[in-house]
Design goal:
By secondary structure, the protein is of the alpha/beta class. It is 32% helix and 25% strand. It is built from ten helices and 13 strands. The strands form three sheets. The protein has a six-stranded mixed sheet with strand order 4-1-2-3-5-6.
């Protein structure tokens, strides 16, 4: 059975995801649970980023069976739709830190604490590989150290490097691309290729090459701390 991934942009910059086949589905961080519920009975395009309005334009199909709802961490802009989804689909299983096997699909929960203590990245290891990073890794960035420190982020990023195939596509919890490109070019002073800046999602290999937080791993935890402090000052008032 072939599983695909579609993306849903909610609030201002949050991403939610649906992993689906013709009949089955798994959602990740369903803040807008009504949108996810609607997506279960829509013909979807793989890797397309949908708004609620765009989703309504898609052709209706028989509703897929939503088996699991995965949360990358407890923050309400990611887990806030759980209760509403459970009311609509009482049998859906809520998963926070557990591996899943379904048909030929394997999803591994990789603990990546720092942004929050319970942060998990979900590694979809199939024909196409994806890592759903929540607020641990962003496009050319990483999450703020709300409940952890530079040691936690150092360990979490290294765990990703150790366990995840380099061709895996990184699926972030937020669209912070423009802000992070600006930080890399204006503060880190790195030159980014146009083809990298034009993408919405990067592979792990691309993140390891161009993301300054991955680059800092070779220099130790203090480099991560200094870089995160610079990012906090650069993005004063933002959450990424």
């Amino acid at each position: 059975m072939s599983f695909k991934v579609s993306v849903f942009k909610v609030r201002e910059d949050n991403y939610s995801y649906l992993i689906y086949s013709d009949k089955l589905a798994i959602c990740i961080d369903p803040f807008d649970y009504k949108l996810i519920y609607d997506a279960l009975e829509r013909e979807l395009t793989e890797l397309k980023i949908y708004t609620a309005l765009e989703l309504q334009q898609e052709r209706k199909i028989p509703q897929r069976n939503l088996l699991y709802c995965l949360n990358t961490h407890w923050h309400k802009d990611h887990s806030g739709g759980n209760d509403g989804l459970k009311e609509l689909i009482p049998n859906v299983q809520l998963i926070t830190n557990k591996d899943i096997s379904l048909e030929d699909l394997n999803i591994y929960a990789i603990p990546t604490p720092c942004h929050t203590k319970d942060s998990v990245s979900f590694y979809m290891d199939g024909k196409q590989k994806y890592l759903f990073t929540g607020d641990t890794v962003f496009f050319l960035g990483c999450g703020m150290f709300f409940e952890g420190n530079e040691i936690d982020m150092y360990n979490s990023l290294n765990e990703i490097v150790k366990r995840v195939n380099k061709n895996t596509l990184m699926m972030y919890g937020h669209d912070y691309n423009v802000k992070n490109i600006s930080f890399v070019e204006n503060v880190v002073k790195s030159v980014l290729p146009k083809e990298i800046k034009s993408k919405k999602f990067l592979t792990l290999e691309e993140e390891m090459k161009y993301n300054p937080f991955f680059n800092a791993l070779s220099k130790g935890t203090n480099e991560l701390k200094v870089l995160r402090e610079k990012k906090n000052e650069f993005g004063l008032g933002s959450k990424n």
